[in-house]
Amino acid sequence: MTAAAFFDLDKTIIARSSTLAFGKPLFRAGFVNRRTLAKAAIAQMSYVMFGADHDQMEMVRAQMLELTKGWDANELRRLAAESMEEVVAPLVYQEALELIGHHRESGRRVVMISSSPEEIVRPLARFLGGIDEVIATRSKVGPDGTYTGDVEFYAYGDGKVDAIRELAEREDIDLAASFAYSDSATDLPMLRIVGHP
Fold it and tell me: How far is it, in rounded angstroms, from Cα 62 to Cα 90?
């Protein structure tokens, strides 16, 4: 058996909401208008100052699904990958990188787990390096390659716990010997299932 270190993303590895951090690149690419960008900036200020509870997370999820409905999934993936240096590099906590490095050196698998969209989380994990696995929210994509406005998997609360347990079973990970990091009370279920929260 091996152990793992599970890292929440927003305000744990990076200093803000990863989804909202991509507002400017999305605006420049024509995905969002100025009004949407302004609303995102206000939401980001509130998130930084007060965090987000369950109801706020549900509201944001519903708004994001509606906003992205009809967007081309491959185009969004390309934009996210191309914007990493601009968007993510200034936001990364050095302490988080050091912890990731420590866990890798100790032989633990490093897992980034986030309620943010997989299209942002996967390229972010590649950009940071040292991440073995990604668990993130997956939106449904229709046969035409655009988002349907529905969610396939929501990596939040008990969804995170279910995904961690599934990964632990599949990869023979000892959760009692594993670590978890988060900034939010919404991740208490995730923190409770590991030996070192």
Answer: 28
Name the strand (E) or helix (H) holding 39: helix 34-50
pLDDT tens figures, 149-166: 888 999 988 999 999 999
CA distances from 65 to 12, 70, 116, 138, 187 (A): 24, 10, 11, 11, 21
Determine whether 174 is an active site residue: no
Nearest to 116 by CA among 145, 91, 143, 144: 91
8 is catalytic: yes
Q: Is the pTM here over 0.85, yes or no?
A: no
With beta carbons less than 8 A apart as the criterion, state whether 82 and 127 touch: no
Distance CA 81, CA 61 (A): 22
Measured distance CA(1)–CA(184) in Å, rounded? 29
- Kindly state the DSSP code that residue 157 receives in the 8-state scheme: T
- Residue 154: partners with Cβ closer than 8 Å, 6 or more residues away: 61, 115, 137
Q: Are 137 and 116 in contact (CB under 8 A)?
A: yes
Write out pLDDT tens, residues 112-151.
999 888 988 999 999 999 999 999 999 999 999 988 988 8
Catalytic residue among 8, 55, 72, 158: 8
Looking at this protein, which amino acid is placed at residue 86?
Answer: E
Computed on alpha carbons and rounded to an integer, the radius of gyration of the chain in Å comes to 16
